[in-house]
UniProtKB/TrEMBL annotation:
UniProt cross-references to InterPro entries, sorted A to Z: Glycosyl_transferase_4, GPT
Protein name: UDP-N-acetylglucosamine--dolichyl-phosphate N-acetylglucosaminephosphotransferase
Lineage start: Eukaryota, Viridiplantae, Streptophyta, Embryophyta, Tracheophyta
Catalytic activity: a di-trans,poly-cis-dolichyl phosphate + UDP-N-acetyl-alpha-D-glucosamine = an N-acetyl-alpha-D-glucosaminyl-diphospho-di-trans,poly-cis-dolichol + UMP
EC numbers, comma separated: 2.7.8.15
Cofactor: Mg(2+)
Biased composition (Low complexity): 10-21
Entry's localization field: Endoplasmic reticulum membrane
A Pfam family assignment: Glycos_transf_4
Chain positions covered by the region annotation Disordered: 1-34
Listed pathway(s): Protein modification; protein glycosylation
Length: 424
């Protein structure tokens, strides 16, 4: 990410302990010395809401005859998510002051050489999003789950995975863990879900392959749980490495979460299987607060960014979407939603494997005179896009990449429509 460089006091720097009177003066003047961040970009959030919310509401209320109990639970969850959005907007400036006091900040590399490149930008603000998300998800249990609910154990296991991953992400932001170790963190965080998972371990064989395999449904057993763990590792790290632009990490999460919501509503409306409907409703209960809190963070992280999200957010968002796909039983669809991340991972493999030298920051070159970015030879989708499209501003490039993300999600819906009945 463009937020990695940090400045902290070194062990050779000396510090004096202030007297009680000096401490009092510091406390009295703290409100004046604390740097403030730019206000949230409400116009951006309004425009994004116009694109994502109306189709979702149309499918929920008019297009499909969704049961009243499921619709009621979705609306309660949506209302709590809306409250979470405003709470997140309110808490981010407060948390920014605290992280700056602890020297947890970064300089925007893509603005180096300009006045904005010298501004200390508070980092790891994904911790606010994660905490608000968890509070909303935990409180929602009061309205939807009973003590004997079959979903309660897996729901809490999912929250444990997300909380564990968020903690490990914050540890990474503070300690700057080597990237090879980062690959193992999601597999550790996914353990609560893997141990608590009691669902099926079967896959439906595509119809064209049934004559060759001989069965329509194949039980993978322990290999299915291995696949779940690998999916969690991929989703978490793929969000983390497809980064480096203001708004890109949060923006891709917003696009994918919106697609997940629409997909789940479509599956609930088209199915007659109660268990299948509950699985997709379960996904909605996690996707709505993810979308709401991510929109709140995007209002500060969009270009020019007032805060950096840190690995805390990318790990949190990736693990949340992995859990949503696993327990909603649509991991194949989720991987198509992640098509840009899959391509970015494939382009990055030579450097990640050590075959090609991998620099610390695989970012494009910034020209302070023109304000444009130029692609480098590093194997990332960001650099490849610049080499294909030509020099772009950071904001324009981010819009192009998020547009590609939206196209990938739309392609997934088209594939499901045209292959329905033939593929599965």
């Amino acid at each position: 990410m463009a937020s990695k460089p940090r400045k902290r006091l070194s062990s050779t720097q000396t510090s004096t302990i202030p007297s009680s009177s000096e401490k009092q003066n510091i406390n009295n003047n703290s409100s004046y010395s604390d740097p403030s961040i730019a206000p949230p970009k409400w116009g951006l959030i309004f425009k994004l809401s116009l694109f994502s919310i109306p189709p979702y509401l149309y499918l929920l209320f008019y297009h499909y005859p969704i049961e009243q109990d499921i619709r009621r639970s979705i609306l309660i969850n949506a209302s709590m998510s809306l409250v979470g959005f405003f709470v997140t907007v309110k808490l981010i400036p407060v948390a920014s002051r605290y992280v700056l006091k602890r020297n947890l900040f970064g300089f925007d590399i893509n603005k180096k050489g300009t006045p904005m490149g010298d501004i200390k930008v508070p980092e790891s603000l994904g911790i606010v999003v994660g905490i608000v998300f968890l509070v909303v998800a935990i409180l929602f249990q009061y309205f939807n789950f009973t003590e004997d609910s079959n979903w309660l154990v897996e729901y809490n296991a999912a929250l444990a995975c997300i909380c564990f991953m968020m903690l490990l992400g914050f540890v990474d932001d503070v300690l700057d863990v080597p990237w090879r170790v980062k690959l193992l963190l999601p597999s550790i965080a996914a353990l609560p879900l893997l141990m608590a998972y009691a669902g099926h371990t079967t896959i439906v064989i595509p119809k064209p392959l049934v004559p060759h395999i001989g069965v329509e449904v194949l039980d993978l057993g322990w290999m299915y749980k291995l696949y779940m763990g690998l999916l969690a590792v991929f989703c978490t790290n793929s969000i983390n490495i497809h980064a480096g632009l203001n708004g890109l990490e949060v923006g891709q999460t917003v696009v994918i979460a919106s697609a997940i919501l629409i997909h789940n509503i479509m599956q609930i409306g088209a199915s007659s299987d109660p268990e299948y409907k509950l699985a997709h409703a379960f996904s909605i209960y996690l996707a709505q607060p993810l979308l709401a809190t991510s929109l709140a963070l995007l209002s500060y992280n969009w270009y020019p960014s007032s805060v950096f999200v840190g690995d805390t957010y990318t790990y949190f968002a990736g693990m949340t979407m992995a859990v949503i796909g696993i327990l909603g039983h649509f991991s194949e669809t989720l991987l198509i939603f992640f098509l840009p991340q899959v391509l970015n991972f494939l382009f990055s493999l030579p450097q990640l494997s050590g075959y090609v030298p991998c620099p610390r920051h695989r970012l494009p070159r910034f020209d302070p005179e023109t304000g444009l970015l130029t692609g480098t030879k590093d194997g990332t989708l960001v650099n490849l896009s610049l080499r294909f499209l030509g020099r772009k501003s950071e904001k324009a490039l981010c819009i192009y990449l998020l547009g590609f993300q939206a196209i990938a999600c739309s392609l997934c819906f088209l594939l499901r429509h045209f292959l329905a009945g033939w593929y599965k």
